[in-house]
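Researcher: Next sequence.
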Amino acid sequence: MRRLAWIVPIVLAACSSTTAGDVGSSGSLVRSNSDSSTSSTSPTTVAATTTSLAPIELTFAFTGDTLVHSPLWAVAAENGAGSGSAYDFRPMFADVREIISAADFAICHLETPFAPPGVELSTMPKYQVPTEVAAALADAGYDRCSTASNHTMDGGVASIDHTVTALEDVGISQAGMARTPVEIEPTVIDVGGLAVTHLSYTIHFNGLSLPADEPWRSARIHIDRILADAATARDLGARLVIVSMHWGNEGSARPNPQQKEWSQRLADSGLVDIVVGSHPHVLQPIERVGDMWVLQSLGNFISAMPTGDKWPPSTQDGAIVLVDVTEQVDGSIEVQRPRVVPTWVDREAGYVVRDVRSWSTTHPDDEGVQDSLERTLKTMGDFVESM
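Model: Next structure:
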């Protein structure tokens, strides 16, 4: 985990065009620092704002839905009785804390907004969850979260304001919610010397609408808007652009035609390097679309979704996806092949997120984790990192 050095807010939208880079020898994607007027066969990008004296090598970590149901906060209340907190979610992340914290920049997906003071906690259909989740995410090693989801508007603008502030108070930045118009605009973040932009969008708000006089409170998926935002980021010097998309069909292990179409349009633009998907509540494959990596769905990182006729056991499966990125001395960017660390929610242990690799080895008789590993291998294939 590497905390941010600076953040530049952007107010003015602009457009530019870049084309995608080459594929490196190890499956990495390479974006060069060539002039954008070169032919379409030459990799191009916006010029770097600085020249490095040595390559910058960073690891990014991405996880799926942080979906806080009432059974989780009931256990967190029990944990808090021993730690002096009303709710303590930290033990739920303890088993994967080392992996997340080791990344230079870790991004979560916070699907459920926090309840402002005095507002009763609630779960489906409108979530208002304990603010103490923020402290647990920070303790786990997260630097940033995507927050645009179908539940963004569950508590109205008061909950948006409170959620952004609560994350800010524990040192976590976010994309997808906004307290002011400027907060929904693209930002450029210095991550260990690399200029990075992270954007977040959702397919809908479960039938709710953004305020007519404050449409900037969150961001829905409109590809033209996303491309304009990514172009703005490139114009301001972003060397790596990451887009979080809350999309797809719930319960489906395969990306739908809309995901495929949107992925292709983003890839064709050459403006986006990595797409991180959420919302289906189950894992979906990792794909390379053109010269862009698409993590179609990272499943539920933590939740208490009931398994049965509607929700399969795979709603307990998740993934920590690690992506190594290098900025070479010449300014070219290499995005390496993603690596998957499978996770599984151990309900019987108090909704602990398990590192499936180590837990399945030390607990070979635990059928739940063994089944989870088999499901994840089937979906994620050889992206799954061995011990």
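Model: The domain at 7-383 is CATH 3.60.21.10 (Purple Acid Phosphatase; chain A, domain 2). The CA atoms of residues 340 and 385 lie 5 Å apart.
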